[in-house]
Amino acid sequence: MVAWKQMARGIPWLFLLLPLALPADSGSPVEGQLLNSMTHGGILGVMVTISNIRQQLTYQDHTDAQGRFYFPLVAPGEYAISFDAREYLPLAPWDPATRVFHVADGNEAVKFQVELTPYGVVAGRIVDGEGRPAAGAEVEMLRARGGGMSLTTTDGAGGFSIRGLGPGAYVLLARPLLPGSGGSEHRKSTVQPPTAPEGEHVTWATTYYPDSTERAGAQTVLIRPGSNLAGYHIHLRESPTWRVRGVVVDEQGKPVAAADITLQSADPLAGAEAHTQSAADGSFELPAVCPGEWRLVADVQRGTVLWKAAAPLSVSNRDLENVTLQAVPPFSLNVIVERDDPRYGKGERQPVSVMLSPVDGARDRQPASTSEQGDNLRIEGVYPGRYRIVPMGFIYGYYVASVRLGLVDVTGQPVDLSPSSPPIVVTYKSGVSRVVGLVDNGPASTVALVPRNETLLSSQFVRIATAGLDGIFDLTGLRPGDYYIFAFDRVDPTALYDADFVRNLLSRAERVHMEPGEAVLSPKLKVTPWPE
Description:
This protein is mainly β.
C-alpha cells in the first residue's frame, strides 16, 4: 500500500492530520527490488522513500517478501530515493541508486534493482576460568583505531551476539561486572569471583579476545562487509587484586565529600571498570583493582558547575595508599581565527569550529568552541590536561595554515592547557592546492592523500576521494605541502590517522608535492587491497 503525502507550507496543521487522498493525475510508475548482496534474496519490510528534490512531495512503500516495491503513479519531477534498512550498510556514494532520477509524464516505469550489504555480526560465549557461564557480563567491540564501540550483555548461558558492525578491524573484550564493579548495580550478573588461596585476593579480570588481560595481547577481529562470525569464545582470566585508597580535595586542599569516582581503563574506548564515592572526609577506597595502567576520574557537582579531578594510576603488586585527586573547576579559552575570506551579504562568514582532543583519549574531556562575534570563538568547559587543538570545518578556497598557542606554532602537536594558557590562534590562508590523476583499472576505487608530516595525520589534512567510473579522481581544497597518495579498494579513514599504520603502507605509496595555488598531476595509481 503506497502512503502518498504532499506537504506544503501554509496548510493548517489540523488538515495535516486528515488522510490525504489527493493522488497525482499525471506521472509514471516507479518500481524496484532490494536484494541482499550476500544471499541475493529479497529483503522484506524495508521502508522505501522517494522525495522530490524541489518541492515537499514524498512517496513511501514497504518492500514485500521478494524485496519489491511499487509506486503506481509518481508526479513528474526530479527525485532521490532512500531505504530505511538499519541492518544493512549505507549505499556507496558511487552506487547508481544514490543519483537524482527523473520521472516524466506517461513514460514507462522507472526501475531500480539495488543490492544492500548486511552489517557484520560477531557471536560467541563468555565463561569464567572454571568453565561456568559468565551471565550478565559486558561484551565490547572496540574499533582497533579511532572511535567507535558496540556493547552488549551476555545471556544466561554466557552467549552474546553483537550486530551492526561496519567493516574494519576491531578488538573484542569481556568485562565480568563483579559485585562493586562499574555498572554491576544496574545489571543482573551471576558471575562469581574465583576461589582465592588464604590471604590472597583474586578476581576475574577484563579479558581481551582470545585470552589477554591487556589490549596489547588482543587478537584483531576483522569485519568484512556482511561478515557473520561465530565461535568467538573468551575464558575470563584470573588476576590478583590490590586495594587503592585515597582522598578527593579541592583547590585549597580541603576534603570533598560525595565525589563520584570512576576507575577507567587506559584504553580510552573501554567502559568504566569500577565506581565508588568519597566519604564525608573525602576519603575513598577501591577494594579490588587488577594490575595495570588505569585512570581515576572524580566528578564533583557544585551548583551548576561540574568540577573534575583526574590522575593516572599504575597498579602492580601492592596496595596503594594516599592517592590524591584534586578537583578543579573548568575554565574557558579564547580562540582567534585569522582569515581573509569574503563575507556573505549580511557580513557573516562561513562558520568554523575548534575542538580539543585529549591526548590520553579521556572520554570526559572533549570540549568544542562556540561562536561569539565575528572571528572570535570561545571554548567552554576545559579542564587542565594535555590536548591536540583540532580545527573543524572547511572554508572553500582556504586551508588551515597554522594553529598557534600564543606565539608558538603547535599544529598537530600535543599541548598542555591550563587557566593561564594564552589564546589559540588558527590561521586560514588562500591559495589551496589541487591534485588530479588516474587510477589504472580502478573505477570507483578510493584515493587517499596523506601528509608526510605525521603531526598532520587528522581529519583536517588527510583527504579521501572516490575515483569515477573512468578511474579519474580530483582532490581540491588542499593544504600545500608533501603527501603520500594511494589507491585502495576500500578505506577505513581512522586508520590513516595512525602514524605506525601509515608507515607500513609506504611501499604502496606514490608521492606528490604541491605549492600554494598549484594544481598537480599525480603519478598513475594502481589499486591495492586495503591491508585489513
